[in-house]
Amino acid sequence: MDYSQFLAMKQEIGLLAVFLLVFLYDTFMPRGAQKGLPVFTTVLMLLVTLGGFCSYCMAPGGEVSAFAGMYVTSPVIAAIKNILNIGVVIVLIQSIKWTNSEAMTMRRGEFYELLLVTLFGMYLMISGRHFLLFIIGLESASLPLAAMVALDKNRYESHEAAVKYILTAVFSSAIFMMGLSFVYGLTGSMYFNDIYFALTSQRSLLLVMAVAFVIGGIGFKLSLVPFHLWTADVYQGAPTSVTSYLSVISKGATAFAFLVVLNQVFGALYSQVWEVMLYALIILTITVGNLFAIRQRNMKRFLAFSSISQAGYIMLGVIAGNAMGLAAMMYYILVYIFSNLAAFGVIGAIENATGKVSMDDYKGLYKTNPRLSVAMMLAMFSLAGIPPFAGFFSKFFIFTGAINQGSVAIYVLVLIALINTIVSLYYYLLVVKAMFISDDECVVPNFRSACSERLGLWISVGGILALGIVSYFYNSLLELTGVSEMTAYFIG
Amino acid sequence: MDVTIPILILAIPLFMFVFLGLTGMKMSHKVAGILGTCGMGTVLVLAYYTAFQYFFSGADIFINGAGERLQYLVFDQTWLQFTENLVIKLGFLLDPISAMMLVVITTISFMVHLYSMGYMRDHHGVYEHGFQRFYAFLSLFSFSMLGLVVAPNIFQMYIFWELVGASSYLLIGFYYTKPSAVSASKKAFIVTRFADLGFLIGILTLSWYTGTFNFTELTSIPVEGMAGVSQVNIGTAEYVRGIFANSAAPTFMGASVLTWALVLIFMGGMGKSAMMPLHIWLPDAMEGPTPVSALIHAATMVVAGVYLVARLFPLYLMEEAALDIIVVVGAVTALYAAMVACTQLDIKRVLAFSTISQIAFMMVSLGVARPEFHHGLGYMASMFHLFTHAMFKALLFLCAGALIHAIGSNNYTEMHGLRKHMPITHVAFLIGCLAIAGIIPFAGFFSKDEILTACFGHSIFWYIWMSAVAGLTAFYMFRLYYLIFWWKEHKTPEGHHAPHDQPWTMTLPLVILSVVSCVAGFVPFGNLVTWNGHPMFESVDFFTNLKALDWSVASISLLVALAAIGLATVMYRKENALPSKMRNALPALWTWCFHRFYFDELYMFITHRIIFGCISRPLAWFDRHVIDGTMDAFATITNKASEVIKPLQSGQIQMYVWYYLVGALLLGGITALCVI
Amino acid sequence: MEITAIYYLVPALVMFCCGVYGFITRKNMIAMLISLELMLNAVDINFVVFNRYLYPEQMEGMFFTLFAIAIAAAETALAIAIIINIFRAAKNIDVRSLNEMKF
Amino acid sequence: MESVGSIILYFIVALSMIVFSVMAVTTRKILRAATYLLFTLFAAAVVYFMLDYEFLGAVQIAVYAGGIVVLFVFAILLTSKPGDNTERLTSKSRFLGGLAAVATLALAGYALVSRCSMAFASKPVMEAPDMQSVGEALLGSGHGEYLLPFEAVSVLLLACIIGGVVVARKR
Amino acid sequence: MFSNILIYFVVVPVIMLAGLGFCRNIKQIRAVAVTGSVALLGLSAYVLAEYLAIRATGNTEPMLFTGSWSWFEPLHINLAVGVDGISIAMLILSSIIVFAGSFASWTIQQPKEFFLWLILLSTGVFGFFISVDLFTMFMFYEVALIPMYLLIGVWGSGRKNYSAMKLTLMLMGGSAFLMLGLIGIYYHSAPEGGQLTWNILEIAKYDAIPHGWQQFLFPMTFVGFGVLGAMFPFHTWSPDGHASAPTAVSMLHAGVLMKLGGYGCFRVAIYLMPYAAKELSFIFLILTGISVVYGAFCACVKTDLKYINAYSSVSHCGLVLFAILMLNSTAMTGAIMQMLSHGLMTALFFALIGMIYGRTHTRDITQMGGMMQIMPYLSVCYVIAGMASLGLPGLSGFVAEMTIFVGSFKAGMAEYLAGAGSLKLVFTIIACCSIVITAVYILRVVGKLLFGPVYDDHHRTLTDATWWERFSTVTLILCVAAIGCFPNFFNNLINTTFTPEIFRVLGM
Asked: Residue C43 burial (CB < 10 Å; 0-12/13-18/19+)?
């Protein structure tokens, strides 16, 4: 028994330390100091993020494996976690106003504790190389979220969303575990590595069903069509900060986990089994997400469907199945975090100030709140993939990465995805239209958003503007993934 | 030869156009008019000088030892280079016909400039609105027309061809507030544009095969040792035909490509020269101010088609089929126009149809010209007629202008009996009529006689046909003459001045042109203008033309003309019942003639019903509803699809998981079916 | 007669399908939760059976089941908390009443 | 060859597993459903015992039967009103549910059966794992040992407690 | 990087954008717009002069002023710039129209936002023309597209929402195909084992795209750019879009943005995939040939001035693509000339229509008449624009069309005599017919709108052009006339680009 192996899990330990500190602060600090908790957590999280960067910079490189291969970390994985951390920091900054509100007094600490645990779960999903660890991570990442969704006690939607989320999530994990049991039956192990090698020569209906169930289980969290139906309701019902967390961090982490599972567990089945499945899922996801997004008037619901279709684009990076695809995917998620958080930042600011979340309330927003509308517009353009904003680059690179795979089918897939970008552009422009073009009198009066909200928005907008044009980010990501183990199985 | 004068000939009108166009509104009417006229006067002098130099200086660049007139390329500047060989150049080519045209154009143009000073103002001496613009346009036209005739290559010709079309458009539409003028100008432009399409394709075909646009290569051979000098020669044309023959040129619908090219080019000429069936714009073009009609639609622009054929004559000689087509088109047009002219009521329309008819004479003359017959007499006759016709037809139009200016109407049923009030105009008009009728010794007699002789030499059928047309010409001209100047005059309504002769600016051109119409017939054209520059006569004096007459032809044509005049005298000298009796005797013929054989209606049908009604409108509809509808349908379908799949998101988690499970099962099941 | 693996797998699968059926048809949220427990339990049996019959030399399946039971307990607890929560808000636990948000 | 007793036991267990799960999802009284669930869970525990996983069987009875079902019963008592515990199922939802269930059964069942080597493997002779090895595996860090998941699941449980508390709290 | 002159075509607009940020009133905004556009004009003139000077020394590099700076290095994406005669022609065109457009929008509402978008649009345009890297090219291409949405949506008129959305979506639809095509080109850019590249010059040099792939990628890129070039049947954004757009936007869009399509078709589709261009040109020849006459016929019966012009643009831009597909240097030269010519005259048209509309508040020619009496200056300009459009010699339309026809006829005859069918020939003749139809609709408008009696007496009180309007139109007219009078200058500028290696596959 070598407990020093825990030391390999620097980021997880850092996170748990923050969790502990927050817990202690929440429990023992006097009531008067409780208002400092959000900032306290944010600063700690920022430190963890910075620490993560340092450790990744100082890391000797290559893969570190602990617990007999149950846990793996590497520069790429550290980078992925860092990307998530950055997103979390922004979410935390944006949520300061909300958590400090009157209604949240009793639940402030719990919000942060739950959030940190879910993040911990996501870390495990990304780093875990054993299905038991993976499923614990998956559950840690989803069960506390259900509680977070229910945090807004004054709104019925919040409760409804929580019920919908927890019931479907448990159903999904049951299906997922069923799939895992088939995998176990076929291979006799839960270690990714063992399964990979055991599956190299197996093909059977049972295996295909297992893969389908596993994809369903993870696709649920990623909200791939047809496993996505909870998404919109939950996004709409959850408090805005939770929604933004759900839509970017949870989704981003799951996407990486998905990549890991598909490549390192089922890598040998790529061309026979899950490539085709992913084709179908991607097309369905992008298309259905877009079609639903067209008709939404509630901004949060609208962004839910938009994020569904974005998930489809993220999956293109998975299907590429190579270093370029991985880099493109990481980059896409990074950009997506900034873009979506900018959008949610604006929505949150307006919701906190006036309680309006309908697109109709945004009509003429430019006249009353020009800065917020510009931030929103940049977010929309970035999500739609309009240059020179970061979204354009991420879209372009993910398509480039996907096509690198080289088959004719991928061209068709990318073409369908590209045609769908037109539809997505349409509904993103609807928001822009409402804010800039509509002549209606705006129901949202001019207001001054909180410092924290503005800071969050500035960071997001800065990301939108800089991430694309400054090539450093993508280049270094690609450099990292070039020597990554995450795709090694697949390539080999 | 010095290039300054040729450049000035082109530059001065262009400058006047730009200058008057830009600053005209700032200067007084009178100054603008005088400036324009002086500018044109200068050009007149320069052009006369150049023509004189060309014809009479005897310099070896203009005439060779054998007395053959040469082509001299004064200058040639690359303007647009398509390929190594195909280059559009802007240049100045002097040869018999271009020198002759220089004289014609500048003369008439100057007369019109002068005349307009009087014409373009009302009885109180107030200048018309847009007077400066009028002079600017006149300058533009003069520039374009001069550029056209001196073009050394077919593309320059095309360029200026378009420009004259545009200036004609602007001048016809000068009274732009009048809807009829606007539509007439539009019609003129579009019809000629349509013809130019043929011209363009013809040029493209010709130039693709021959690899050049230059006349000096298409129709001439260079004279050794002298830069820029070449001689019109059938040999070059033979060479061109050789190219067409050797390049395995396919035949198209039974005719060789060269024939097609030439016919298409002739189509351009048909448009500009108002040959049937592309003549319909010319009568309408009379909506323009009368001096414009005199200049553009009688004397110069409308003969551009004749000029074009004359330019390429050696090529046409190679393809007799093309020449035959020209003869047929010309002859039919001549007869048609003459018949129509007999019935028209508008003085300018009669003159317009007369013009069509006379130009058709020139065309026929070119068509029947063959080198083996009197050194291509038809060619010379055609050019001669072009020259004389320009003079007397301009005279007639200017007279008509004077009448219209005096009466205030185009309709000669309102004129009657003006000979006492307007004696100068009367005499001038009479001279013009005599000239066009072909009465010795007026100019028209000689040129028309040469044409008939040429016809006679080619085919007796066309000879008889054209003689008949000549008779008709005399008839309708004198009908016009009698109706205007004889008959009983109308009473002048109270408060109106009695019609009287016009100021000197208007009468002077009449007098000058009358004199020219009287004596132009004696110009020894046969020695100046022949198709290959070879002189027709050993020596010349004042009576050369008279001596050279083929009296057998001349006397017959004279008799026919006199008979026709007599008939006109009987019918129209006084108001009587004969005309209406004749009309009743041949009602169908009269109606058809009166309605110009319904050509306008036919065109209206084609343009409005077929082009607009059956093509444009359906296409526009198709565009909006089918093409655009398809694009909109994409959006609609997307929205519809969004509506259709709405129930998926029912809000019921049990349905959510149902879709989840079924989705997963299908995903697995279908994949399994595919891969196992 | 020999009791092979399939003799356990099929009843487990039937249990799983009953869970599916119950989850889709029952209107009471707690009944749905009960159905979910059936499903999870079926998975557990699968793991144990595979472990015992196919890979008896290791204990992967058993441990998975062990942890799965813990996870199931946590899930159930949280789910019941949330259901009680909604019961407070809506005064019933009929899943059909969760239709505030749709389309 | 199995002993007759174990075959009889098997049939009893298998039948009760199937019958009680069917009844759990079809009964109209919610409290009965919880009871049938309990029986099913007991049957599962018996399966564990039959397969020589005594520890697992004990955990099953303790956690599931003892903990979760009780939780269910409390929740049912908290949330149900008199006369509320009968529900009518629409035929549409029954059809859809049945379809999904049968499809799953058919597909997965066929998949299992079609893997003959796996489906028809017979039970090897093996003793129940002794508690020593179970404990070592739970706290070891090597291959086939589960220290990390053990720690992780503790975090999960903590989070669920916090979550449960925050959700259930009235304000 | 900043030692390369071309970079300033992007830097100047970016500085303008920054400058606009500091503007407080309309005067400052105008000052920034005018200074910036003059700077761009000067820059393009300077580049032209330098270019000619360098070429005069016998330099035969395919592109001059080349520079390449690594951007996304692992993907081999560079910020690569370079110009040849065609790009320079386009740069000049763009700067002239930006210049004229600034004056045409002298009194626009919300000037700051308007100019921000307008300049962003021109940044895209300039960036596109200087790029030789497919990625940057595409990026600038899209940068140029999206401001259109807001420009039309906010400052437009009529069904502006519908039109703006339609325009944006259709153009983005085109660019979807385009993106796929470009990525495909990238992956086949180098021969087996070579380093992949986005650089157009290198791709052309390698000429390694397999023929099979060319046949797939060529239609993608051609359609992608063709949508912007208003190719039938993807042209329907153009009438609606133009009809709703504000004056300067119509000018820029029809004048420059549509040229991106033609330019791209040449520079990417044909230049990089000549084999497929040769094989597949017939399909697009048919489509563009249809565009030419179809647009003209449709214009004949429309009554909205902007619709007429938009359809006229469809016709003229169809001619551009048509000529490019003829695959010989004369026709291609003609195509580029036509781009220049059409850009200028259509900008003039739209400027005039905007000015007239700004006064009469109607664009329906049946509701107007006799404008010549009311606003003679604008009317004369309109006649000049019309004459340029119908190909009057001395104005730009004529030389462009003639070059195209000569080139196309040459190509058609060559094909015909080679026994390869008469498609090109037939469509050349069909395209020639457009000169007649063009005359019909131009003269129809001129006749109805400018001539004739005054239709509406309320119009009598309207005023003629203001000084900035005059300035804008005079600039354009001078340019139109300059091309028309001295075509050989432009011809030589463009012609030098069509070096034999472009036609390496075509056997010409």
From this structure: buried
Nearest chain B Cα to D97, which residue?
Answer: B658
**Which site among B652, B661, B670, B673 would you substitute to test the D interface, given the most D Cβ atoms closer than 10 Å to its Cβ?**
B661
Distances in Å between the Cα of B182 and the Cα atoms of A22, A339, B170, B187, B302 are: 87, 60, 9, 9, 20
From the list C38, C41, C76, which residue is nearest D71 (CB)? C76
> Tokens representing B472?
């008709």
The Cα–Cα gap between E444 and E302 comes to 10
Nearest-CA distance B621 → chain A (Å): 27
Residue A175 and residue B660: Cβ atoms within 8 Å? Answer: yes
A281 CB neighbour count, 10 Å cutoff: 26
3-class state of residue B293 by DSSP: helix
- What does pTM read for this prediction? 0.92
A409 touches chain B (CB under 8 A): no
Please state whether at least 3 CB pairs lie below 8 Å between chains B and A. Answer: yes
The chain E residue lying nearest A479, using CA atoms, is: E74
* Sequential pLDDT tens for chain A (492 residues): 677 888 888 889 999 999 999 999 999 988 888 889 999 999 999 999 998 887 665 555 677 888 888 998 888 888 899 999 999 999 999 999 999 988 888 888 999 999 999 999 999 999 999 999 999 999 999 999 999 999 988 888 999 999 999 999 999 999 999 999 999 999 989 999 899 989 888 888 999 999 999 999 999 999 998 999 999 999 999 999 999 999 999 999 999 999 989 988 988 888 888 888 999 999 999 999 999 999 999 999 999 999 999 999 999 988 887 788 888 999 999 999 999 999 999 999 999 889 889 999 999 999 899 999 999 999 999 999 998 899 999 999 999 989 988 888 899 999 999 999 999 999 999 999 999 988 888 888 888 888 999 999 999 999 999 998 898 888 888 888 776 555 554 433
Q: Confirm whether C101 is domain-assigned.
A: no
Cβ distance of A423 and B663 shorter than 8 Å: no
Distance CA A182, CA E459 (A): 83
3-state secondary structure of C51: helix
User: What total of structural domains would you count in chain C?
Assistant: 1
The full set of domain ranges for chain D reads 1-88, 89-120, 129-171
Q: CB contacts < 8 Å between A and B, how many?
A: 99
Interface test with E, best of B175, B189, B278, B631 (most E CBs within 10 A): B631
Q: Chain C within 8 Å of D65 (Cβ-Cβ)?
A: no
Altogether, the residues listed in chain D come to a count of: 171
Task: Write out the DSSP string of A251-304.
Answer: HHHHHHHHHHIIIIITGGGIIIIIHHHHHHHHHHHHHHHHHHHHT--BHHHHHH
Look at B675 and A208 and tell me if their CB atoms are within 8 Å.
yes
Give CA–CA dist B379/B365, Å, rounded: 6
Chain C residues with beta carbon closer than 8 angstroms to that of D120: 4-6
Chain A residues with CB-CB distance to E187 below 8 A:
403-404, 406
Residue E162 CB partners (closer than 8 Å, separation 6+): E240, E244
Determine the structural domain holding residue C63 and report its residue range: 6-92
The class of domain D1-88 in CATH terms is mainly alpha
ipTM of the complex: 0.93
Q: Pull the structure tokens for residue B386.
A: 């072009």
From the list B79, B160, B611, the residue facing E488 with the nearest CB is B79
Decide: E395 and E386 in contact? Cβ < 8 Å: no
CATH code, domain with C49: 1.10.287.3510
Which residues are registered as beta bridge partners of E70? Answer: E78
Distance CA A113, CA A392 (A): 35
Residue A239 φ then ψ, to 5°: -60, 150
